[in-house]
Amino acid sequence: MKRKLEQLIFFILCFAMAATLSGCNGGKDPSAKTVGIVMPSKSIERWGRDGEYLRSLFTEEGYNVELRFSDDVLRQINDIQVLIADDVDILIVVPIDGGTLSRTLEDATIKNIPVISYDMLVLNTDAIDCYVSFDNYRVGALQGQYIVDALSPDETEDTFNIELVTGDPADNNARFFFGGAIDVLQPYIDSGKFIVPSGKTTFDQTATPGWSMDLAFKNMQNTLASYYSDGKRLDAVMCSNDGLGLGVLNAVQSDYLGGNTPVITGQDGDTAALQSIRDGKLSMTVYKDVRNEADVTVSVATAILEGKALDESLIGELPAECVFDTESYDNGVKKVPSFLLVPEVIDSDNVDSLLKNR
Ligand code: BGC
Questions:
Q1: pLDDT of 1 higher than 80
Q2: Ligand 1: distance of its center to the CA of 242 in Å?
Q3: N or C: which end of the chain has fewer CB within 10 A?
């Protein structure tokens, strides 16, 4: 009898210990879990920032983190293969080229490793569980609207010359940025209020492979030489991110003959872009607080590891304002459930106040 009682007490103690260990994470102890994070090259400022935020936030929550920055597509495929072979518990992936990872991620599916597509969408695979990003269409719409507000075409008989410079065709986001911007600008182009002297008004005509700042610089030099050498005034250039905006700005500073400073847009709030806004050169940037994006990603990853459903009900638990969208992001295989954060405009009016406490 006494022996039976001892066995029972032992059993209850074991049960209580197991419950305590697992209680803080819905049945799983984060410290036993490893998160694999794969980012593009650090040569684009924001990926260095995103990677380090994600690493520190996951670490604070008690996860082990394996973080890799890959300079090119083949390296990225290899990095993901290594993380899968290491049996990470969840993968966070920012694809360099959205269409190149389907085969590699099949191995994640085989091993039941969930995958979050972070910021850029991974295409042509059902291996990803969800997408965490900013509202990319809105980013472009903010850039287009900034140009309209700055030039006020509705309040004058004047017409304005504008150009468009957008991002990498391998990045699904680039089409969303362009789509948001052109939806605002197109009515003015159609009505003749905005003229595009280069004639380049489609995504393909205005794309910049690799989001290359150098290429944006050279392309703008060519545009200025070909269409503005007669002294034509350039009023605005819609650039999809800061690197492109700064490349275009350099070309304008060296090769533009007009006396005005054109409105030039950006995105990301890179250090050089913020300085340029303070100096009165770049007009604006669309700021995406990557700490919020990282914060939301940690919450979503934890929800996945706890076996929670990825649906609208999660929104209330997320640490930053988000929209849950199940329609907009079709990756070619499925409509990917998406958590989309809200971007903000920064220009010379709010550059210091908005960033004060961030
Ligand atoms: C990101 C932007 C970034 C661009 C170039 C996009 O997918 O959303 O923030 O500027 O890639 O890296």
A1: no
A2: 9
A3: N
Give Cα 323 to chain centroid, integer Å.
Answer: 15
Q: Which of 309, 254, 252, 255 is nearest to 282 (CA)?
A: 252
Strand ranges, E, within 299-349: 322-325, 338-341, 344-347
Ligand 1 center to 26 CA (angstroms): 34
* Residue 304 structure tokens: 């996945």
Alpha carbon distance 98, 96 (integer Å): 6
Say how many Å lie between the CA of residue 305 and the centre of ligand 1: 27
In terms of DSSP H, where are the helices of the chain?
2-23, 45-60, 73-85, 102-110, 136-151, 172-190, 203-206, 213-227, 242-255, 271-278, 290-305, 351-355
pLDDT digits 0-9 by tens, 168-223? 999 999 999 999 999 999 999 999 999 999 999 999 999 999 999 999 999 999 99
Q: Residue 45 to residues 138, 265, 271, 306: CA-CA distances in angstroms?
A: 22, 17, 8, 33
Domains and CATH numbers, the chain: 23-134+289-342 (3.40.50.2300), 137-287 (3.40.50.2300)
303-341 residue pLDDT tens: 999 999 999 999 999 999 999 999 999 999 999 999 999
